[in-house]
Design a protein that fits this description.
Its main location: membrane. It is found in: Cell membrane. This is Sulfatase N-terminal domain-containing protein. It comes from Domibacillus iocasae. InterPro entries: Alkaline_phosphatase_core_sf, LtaS-like, OpgB/LTA_synthase_biosynth, Sulfatase_N. The chain has 2 domains: about 210 residues, no CATH class; about 400 residues, 3-Layer(aba) Sandwich (Alkaline Phosphatase, subunit A), CATH 3.40.720.10. The radius of gyration is 27 Å and the shape is globular. The protein has 24 helices and 19 strands. The strands form 5 sheets. It has an 8-stranded mixed β-sheet with strand order 7-6-10-1-11-12-4-13, sandwiched between helices. A 5-stranded antiparallel β-sheet has the order 15-16-17-18-19. Helix 2 packs antiparallel against helix 8. The chain is an alpha/beta fold. Strand 6, helix 17 and strand 7 form a beta-alpha-beta unit. The structure holds (2R)-2,3-dihydroxypropyl phosphate and manganese (II) ion. Manganese (II) ion (MN) binds next to helix 14. The site of manganese (II) ion has 6 residues, from helix 14.
């Protein structure tokens, strides 16, 4: 018989090899995973293999060649597509896809520009192996001949797949003890068990969390309530009630990180208005966002409920049927007219449903605004007209009111109209970062006009104005450009510090003050309610009043990183804030447990829908 170069290579082995190699190449080229040593590199190399072998191995059980070929091609395409979907998602969010995200379809239609910005023609290469496999099967070039494997070799094949899986898990355990039970960080999971196994694990988590609500009962809340009570920080004597009876206007400032404040680009100030306004406000200079995959909506969730968002998916989508004890509700009980204002489709982030659960009396969405082509850019209505029209709506509101507003212009991909450009773009290799400065400058201007409009409407003196940045605008994908701007390397420490967002509270008649306490979005609810003279004692919450003498300097990020007064825990290492260098891990150790405990309790409240067992009257009685 004529020998051919691959005469004794089984078709299945070829399909496995193609996909395995491709996955590894994609790991190395399309995800930004830090590999610190040879063992980690080795784990990365082998981690896709066992799953691919098992998935393709099903091909052995097909009777007809045709059906088997179809299966192999189909499987190869499906897994490639899954990988590619993760690549696209990663470009956008620097994160991997989770199951709950797949059900957020109502968001997809609105992503528009943001997504197309992330595609290019070369992406076809992600399917190169599938195409080659297809051609091989279709045209069967004479030099290729596939032989069926013998029964023995088949058995060896499955045994090897199992052995590789155990080897992988064993090595992962050495590299990262208790990986599956303790980690909130998806990159760590993918690095250790591989993308495909990660998705299986994610499906497992999904079913587990669904079961949790059914099994929950009130007794769980007692334990968590005790934890939360012990965490309560009593209000500051001087400031408690300093803003009593005033309207509360809270603005979620899109994608605005703190590094733009008191900073310049090309010698031009980026946020002249915010810099001045901060001086007249209680200005928190060590305040971090704590959002996860739910981005803006996670920030809303944190500030309203003083609960952490989830580590997978957006809680606005996954748990909009839950019971909450929000700031909005609490304010309503105290005579406020609470509402949300955002000139976007009401269903984005499932807001229309979730806002009912949060308890806003009214949601002013895109239909309440006069939106046209002239006053829109990028994602929709520009911030200046948004604020202008919002003030018009506010004039009609019964007072005191609480309005939660969300800006939109400074959103990825940061497109703007030439007429709104007040400073020049930066000049790095990242168009995203270059444009970011221009759109931040625009939003700064919009906030300025907002305050002017409020003054004109006679609302300014009766209103507390709160501004917070919702989450980062510049992801780690732009580290190189960011390093160029900052003039220093973006280490995991610098990256964590970049998660600082502006947070300021302007209270008429109260002098401005810089407050350096370390905190985060989870602290907003108790801080604001106490300023408005409403105590939060007995409430199930994980934040503390940032103005309290008892406030602990601490901010846990949703992915397990955290910041204390002196240290930052990031990239699996402990960093000394005084030097910006790595330090002895033991300085961070006690807080690792604290961060994990808080996140875990908060998750249990959400997964178990535990606040349905909460009785505010009994909580009040305990005071
Ligand atoms: C959309 C806006 C943006 O309504 O809140 O959401 P984001 O993508 O920043 O989470
Ligand atoms: Mn946002």
């Amino acid at each position: 018989m004529k020998r051919t170069i691959s005469s004794n290579i089984s078709l299945i082995a070829v399909a496995v090899l193609f996909l395995w190699m491709k996955t590894y190449v994609v790991y190395k080229t399309s995800f930004n995973m830090d590999i610190e040593n040879t063992l980690q590199e080795f784990i990365l190399l082998i981690n896709p293999l066992s799953f691919i072998m098992l998935a393709m191995g099903v091909g052995f059980f097909f009777k007809s060649d045709k059906a088997r070929n179809r299966y192999l091609l189909g499987m190869s395409f499906f897994l490639s597509f899954l990988l590619f979907a993760n690549v696209v998602f990663y470009r956008f969010f620097n994160d991997f896809i989770t199951m709950p995200l797949l059900f957020q379809t109502s968001n997809f239609a609105d992503l528009g520009n943001s997504v197309t910005e992330e595609f290019n023609v070369a992406d076809i290469l992600y399917f190169a192996d599938v195409i080659i496999l297809f051609l091989l099967l279709k045209f069967k070039p004479s030099f290729v001949k596939f032989r069926p494997m013998s029964k023995m070799s088949r058995r060896a094949y499955f045994l090897s797949a199992a052995a590789i899986m155990f080897l992988n898990l064993g090595l992962a355990e050495i590299e990262r003890p208790q990986l599956l039970t303790r980690t909130f960080d998806r990159e760590m999971l993918v690095k250790n068990i591989g993308t495909f196994n990660y998705h299986i694990y994610d499906i497992f988590l999904q079913s587990k969390s669904s079961a949790q609500r059914a099994l929950a009962d009130g007794s769980e809340l007692t334990e968590i309530g005790n934890f939360s009570d012990a965490n309560y920080a009593a209000p500051n004597d001087e400031l408690f009630g300093a803003a009593k009876g005033k309207n509360l206007i809270m603005v979620s400032v899109e994608s605005t990180q703190a590094f733009v404040m008191n900073n310049k680009v090309n010698g031009q100030e980026i946020t002249p208005f915010l810099n001045d306004f901060a001086k007249e406000s209680l200005n928190f200079t060590n305040f971090y966002h704590q959002t996860g995959q739910g981005k803006t909506s996670d920030a809303e969730f944190l500030t309203e409920n003083s609960l952490y968002p989830l580590s997978r998916g957006a809680v606005f989508f996954t748990h909009s049927g839950n019971e909450f004890n929000s700031m909005a509700e609490k304010l309503e009980e105290n005579g406020y007219y609470s509402n949300a204002m955002h000139a976007n489709n009401k269903s984005f982030w499932n807001r229309d449903i979730m806002y009912d659960a949060i308890g806003y009396e009214r949601f002013y969405d895109v239909n309440d605004y006069e939106v046209n082509e002239d006053n829109s850019v990028n994602w929709g209505m520009k911030d200046v007209p948004f604020f202008e029209q919002s003030v018009g709506l506010m004039k009609e509101m019964p007072q005191p009111f609480y309005s939660k507003m969300i800006t939109l212009t400074n959103h990825h991909p940061f497109y703007y109209d030439e007429e709104d450009k007040m400073i020049d773009e930066f000049n790095s290799n990242s168009g995203t970062l270059n444009r970011y400065f221009v759109t931040v400058r625009y939003t700064d201007e919009a906030l300025k006009t907002f305050v002017e409009d409020l003054k004109e409407a006679g609302l300014y003196e009766d209103s507390v104005i709160v501004l917070y940045g919702d989450h980062y605008g510049i992801s780690e994908n732009h580290n190189e450009a960011m390093a160029q701007y900052l003039g220093k390397e973006v280490t995991p420490y610098v990256s964590a510090e970049l998660q600082k967002v502006p947070f300021m509270i302007h209270i008429p008649g109260v002098d401005g003050q810089e407050i350096s306490t370390v905190g985060g979005q989870v602290d907003v609810r108790p801080t604001l309610l106490h300023l408005l003279g409403i105590d939060t004692k007995g409430d199930v919450q994980f934040g503390q009043d940032l103005l309290s003498e008892d406030h602990e300097n601490f901010a846990a990020f949703r992915d397990g990183r955290f910041v204390t007064e002196d240290y930052v825990y990031a990239g699996d290492a402990c960093w000394d804030k005084a030097t910006g260098e790595q330090t002895d891990a033991t300085y961070c150790t006690p807080y690792i447990e604290k961060a994990a405990a808080e996140l875990n309790y908060s998750d249990r409240v959400i997964y178990g829908d535990l606040l349905r067992f909460y009785d505010p009257d009994s909580a009040i009685k305990e005071q």
